[in-house]
Specification:
single chain, mainly alpha, disordered N terminus
Length: 281
């Protein structure tokens, strides 16, 4: 029975501060149980594949509604799809991601998306994120692909293919819109999904693998899945490597703030490089 005495200093020394960086046992910012973590993981998979299906459905509905139904097939196969295809597809995909995040938080979390996914910011996040994002594009990616330069003709141009497909159908004000979406909205949605929902579920599931191995497995797996989710064979190496950086950043800081800014800066450099290349032609 309790004796009413104050806790000893020895006992106090074993209590971890909730913001301590030591891994994860127990970790109040992760799913509360292994069962909840499995639910989060399954919801992440459902959100991704459901978002892909919903993306196609939204594109078809929008195409028919604006009178482009007869040209739908060619628009979908185009190397540079029209703006309405890009925006409709992104909207459907994001809806799938958002649904998975909301359901996980409400059914198997605290009910607060910000608390469950780590959507928090600090004063230094913009500066730290900007540095990491720019370094990812101008240092990490070129170094990774340097050995492939002699083996793959026009490698730089081919690596810019996805950005070209995303922005090539936009002009003027529309280009500014997709630029804002790519630099502002995409990082928030993808970081909530990959470094919030997916990473935190994997951190809980790998918690028994050890204080070092468990987080390493979760961080690497999340980064690789982030790369694979973009379905770009040539770009997979760079996307997975930068995904691992973002996952490690989210794990170490226990929040998404710096990763959102890093992701945004990474995308911004790609968009600016594409715009500069187009202007020089």
């Amino acid at each position: 029975m309790p004796d009413g005495s104050a806790p000893s200093l020895a006992n106090l020394s074993t209590v971890e501060h909730p913001d301590a960086m030591a891994p994860l046992d127990p970790a109040p910012y992760l799913p509360r149980s292994v069962r909840d973590a499995w639910s989060w993981l399954l919801l992440a998979l459902g959100g991704y594949f459901g978002g892909q299906v919903l993306s196609t459905v939204v594109v078809v509905v929008v195409g028919i509604s604006i009178g482009e139904g007869a040209h739908l097939s060619s628009a979908l196969r185009s190397s540079i799809p029209p703006a309405w295809v890009v925006l409709s597809g992104l909207g459907g995909l994001w809806a799938g991601f958002a649904a998975a995040i909301l359901i996980a938080s409400r059914r198997r979390g605290t009910g607060s998306v910000a608390a469950d996914m780590g959507l928090r910011f600090s004063t230094w996040d913009p500066l730290v994120g900007l540095g990491i994002g720019v370094a990812g594009q101008v240092l990490l990616v070129p170094l990774l692909y340097l050995p492939l330069q002699p083996l793959i003709p026009h490698l730089d141009r081919r690596l810019g293919g996805p950005a070209q497909r995303l922005t090539g159908g936009f002009h003027g004000a529309d280009l500014a819109v997709i630029g804002v979406l790519t630099v502002v909205v995409v990082p928030v949605v993808e970081e909530l999904f990959f470094r919030g929902l997916l990473l935190r579920s994997l951190l809980r599931l790998t918690n028994g693998a050890g204080r070092v191995l468990g987080p390493v497995l979760a961080v690497v797996a999340t980064g690789v899945l982030f790369g694979l989710a973009h379905a770009e064979t040539l770009q997979l190496l760079g996307l997975a490597a930068f995904g691992i950086v973002l996952s490690a950043l989210a794990y170490r800081t226990r929040r998404l703030g710096p990763g959102i800014f890093a992701h945004g800066a990474f995308n911004l450099v790609a968009v600016l490089a594409l715009a500069a290349r187009s202007a020089s032609r």
